[in-house]
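#help-structures
NK: newbie question, is this the right format to request a structure? protein is ABC transporter permease
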Amino acid sequence: MRLSLPFAALAATLLSLSPAFAADPKPLRIGVLNDQSGIYADMAGPGSVIAAKMAVEDFGGSVLGRPVEIIAGDHQNKPDVGSAIVTRWIDEDGVDVIADIPTSSVLLAVQEIGRTKNKLVLASTGGSSDFTGKACAPTGIHWTYDTYALAAGTGASLAKDGPWFFITADYAFGTALERDTAKAVEKGGGKVVGSVKHPQGTADFSSFLLQGQGSGAKLIAFANAGSDTVNAIKQANEFGIPQSGIKLAGLYLHITDIHAIGLQTSQGLILTQGFYWDLNDETRAWSKRFYERHKAMPTMGQAGTYSAILHYLKAVKAAGTTDTATVAAQMKATPVDDFFSHGGRIREDGRMVHDLYLLQVKTPAEQKYPWDYLKLIRTIPGDEAFRPLAEGGCPLVRQHAAN
């Protein structure tokens, strides 16, 4: 029996709408790449994955009719492992964005993959200022902090408390952090008398601490991260270095590091943060939600992961597309507006400029409740905290000026 044309058209329409025949919308996938089980797991790790999922949930779970999925990968702090994961994510799993990425050697490798494959890289935990300097890319956005900003905070505030001696992790982040801090110290009228490099994951810092003690320094600065920083500060106290009149400076400390070290040992330390959970009612409200899931207060990188992903999703919705260049332009055209930053802006080099905070670790007597570890010394305006646009050596800035 032949169907009339109107009936045939109606039947075709109903068939196309049937769940059995309608294709499910392709998910928008965001990959959270970090150290899931090693020395940086506390400051990023599973907590960053939780923060990313919270951002998706708070946004509504979908955008442009597509569900948003978070997938996680453990780069083991190895550039080759991280590069392999990201390449597979993009080529086989349809990942649109890579986020978090502590360990600067991994971050810089992922930056090149993002540039080549035209995928956004949202660096919320990786720290080398080279990411928005000589290694900048139109696909790279740096969110929470960088080594220049840490130096502008902690380094500048303690410049004249030296002479300085650096104990530095022997990888890209440590090298950049020492370089940027030494410049800030010298600019502030201070002096650097020496430095020594240590391997990642060092258990025994005694030989490095002895070199610092014997250098004539009045301040030993740790340009490292994670459990390396925790172990170095603990051992320095065991050796009585602070009691001998030599100050300690952890150039890259997190709230989880203070928790691991304890107030008795870490009291008085100065640190620079892009976020602190107890700053105001907004930060406290979000952080308590995070704590319910993770049983630890968020680090600045974990909070930055939430903020970066939320801003990305807002940009996708506003732009009406997931096209990388269009979304990146929308992100840069729109001020950041959440508990992490009100009025933060993304420059053409990819640097998100926002206020930072110079804080001091409280004494045990000053602590009033769990995780009440830090007190605010001053708020550092973003334009003061981050490297001037013209000084970073980013080729995109020269292209922008030429255009």
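mod (FA): yep, format's fine, and the tokens are attached above. The first helix runs from residue 5 to 17.
NK: thank you!
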